[in-house]
Amino acid sequence: MRALIVLALVTGATLAHAQSNSKKELVAKVLQLQQASIEGLARNIVERPALQMMQAAGATLQAQVPPAKREAAAKSIDADVRKFVDEGVPILTERAIKIAPATYGAGLEEKFTEDELRQLIAWLESPVNKKFQQNVPELQNAFTQKLIAEAGPLLDPKLLALQRKLQATLGVPATPAATAPKASGPAAKPAAK
Length: 193
Fold this sequence. Notes:
The protein has helices spanning 2-33, 35-64, 67-99, 101-111, 114-125, 127-170.
């Protein structure tokens, strides 16, 4: 009888260990399938502040740099921003891939059952999901353009007022209305994914 109890305990522990490894393997598969998204997020994290700095620099160029020096300064700024992005993206991508199992993976393991992970993998590998992912940029672009077209005119006056207030706070000469950023202009478009 005692041997049966010991055997049952050993079998239960082995089964639990096998299930744990199976779940870890499923999480690893989800992370592998999501690697492009993780890398895209890392790229976006690097590009977003660089784009914001470039836009701010462009406004400053127009307002404070003599016209004769603007083109050279713009090329220099563009080169510096590109260098930052080119150097920063690989660093952040490598770090994102490295920490994903301990963060993203741990959350998946905690919040999803093995069956749910299998279903998630099936969805991520499905032709429907692949088609959806291929069409997301076009769908988002059409949505963004429509949203900006409809909401831009409502936000442009507020954006111009904010720009003037910030310029006054900073003691920077006011920019002509023609060069003020617009919610419906290129600055409002989201960074490419």
